[in-house]
Amino acid sequence: MQMKSDFQLIEMAVDGNEDAFRSLLQRHCEMVFKVAYRWCAVKEDAEDIAQDVMMQLADNIRGFKPDEAAFTTWLYRVTINAAKDAYRRKQSRKNNEGQYANDRDVHSSDSAAEQQLWQQETTRLLDRLPDKDKEAVFLVFCEGLNHAEAATIVGCAESTISWRVHSARKKLKAWTKQ
Amino acid sequence: MTNDELKNMLEQPDAPDLDDAARGRIVTSAAIRYRHAARGPETNTTASSGGWLKSTLKPFMAAAAALVLVVAIQHSLPGGSTNGSGTSGTDRYSAAVFSEYQSLFQHELRAVVARNGDVDVVLGGQASQQTNPLVIIRIEADGQPIYITAYSGQTIETEIGGKSVVLDILTTADQEVVLASDEFILERGVLHGPDDFVADAHILEVSL
């Protein structure tokens, strides 16, 4: 059977076809999970975020115009927002800067302790950035999007993304010198 | 700091793959919500930033503590009117929702907690004793009613009035529901606990 495009699946899901909706979920939950993971670096948290995003998709799908590009952008935006919310909740629970970073999954493929420390340090620095700067840096450098694409997801002007990346770079530079 | 330096600094390890259990849980919960979102006026289908899912659930691990999966179906509970058999709309609705989740999580479902339009499904390693009576509990703290549906004999942990409370749900031989927690005890319809706390509970006279 020919695989249906996102466009077709969205169209069918908008009309109430649960199988089509499930197919959409199956197709995109991995991507959402990975984006969430790259943001929070904790597998369980990334699963929570992915589930939150899929719940929001269930709420909103019937109002979608079948447009693949808009759909992907929407998923990205909701994922980033969910990740930010999750982070804030976790931070307020722990009320302890730095502890979140220590929770993050440690990957020791080559058991390089130094690399782990570097990673933790990077995470700590990133977490010090204002949310908007972190979001811009994340989309551009971790997700590999260009400034225009990141701007579409965040819902701001391209120049705003450029400014936020510049501002983040400046802060990170200063902090790494400390 | 150049773009390349920043890029190198931010180089992340590859994200792990989403495992099948997590994928199944995510897809199933969202599909349930999609189905319920289609069910007309009693369902709130507006976008919500709520519904945060605590999927620390590890269904295949023998978790000692109950874990809460917030499925957030956005139901609004119907009113408490009763039909000829004395069963209220809330009872019937709670039983129906419980039954639906029981069919999905038969060996893990411990309770269904409805609050503020969201439904939390409490899952854990300890299976429900389906031979025990099914009870519905209404607890009001800070003006917000919470409905808990569970088989008696369960111990569940849920959030009431902004804090986590462990509840023991029991029934007596004369079919009275007893609720016990560190905060309060409800016994034979009498609540011993904080003054601003309201709780009542009864056995659900609804067959699943």
Structure description:
- The complex is a heterodimer of chains A (178) and B (208).
- Chain A has 178 residues and is mainly α.
- Chain A has 2 domains: 1-99, Rna Polymerase Sigma Factor, Chain: A, CATH 1.10.1740; 109-178, Arc Repressor Mutant, subunit A, CATH 1.10.10.10.
- Chain A is built from 9 helices and no strands.
- The longest helix of chain A is centred in the middle third of the chain and has 27 residues, at 68-94.
- Chain B is an alpha+beta fold.
- Chain B is built from 3 helices and 11 strands.
- Chain B has a 6-stranded antiparallel sheet, with helices on one face. A 5-stranded antiparallel sheet of chain B has the order 6-7-8-9-10, with no helix packed on it.
- In chain B, strand 8 (177-180) and strand 9 (185-187) form a beta hairpin.
- Chain B starts with a helix and ends in a 5-residue tail after the last strand.
- The model of chain B is unreliable at 40-85 (pLDDT under 50).
- Chains A and B meet through helix 2, helix 3, helix 4, helix 6 and helix 7 of A and helix 1 and helix 2 of B.
Describe the secondary-structure layout.
The complex is a heterodimer of chains A (178) and B (208).
Chain A: H1 6-14, H2 18-40, H3 43-60, H4 68-94, H5 99-103, H6 113-128, H7 131-142, H8 147-154, H9 158-177
Chain B: H1 3-9, H2 20-37, E1 67-70, H3 89-104, E2 109-115, E3 118-123, E4 134-141, E5 144-151, E6 155-160, E7 163-171, E8 177-180, E9 185-187, E10 190-192, E11 198-203
Antiparallel strand pairs in B: 1-3, 2-3, 2-5, 4-5, 4-11, 6-7, 7-8, 8-9, 9-10
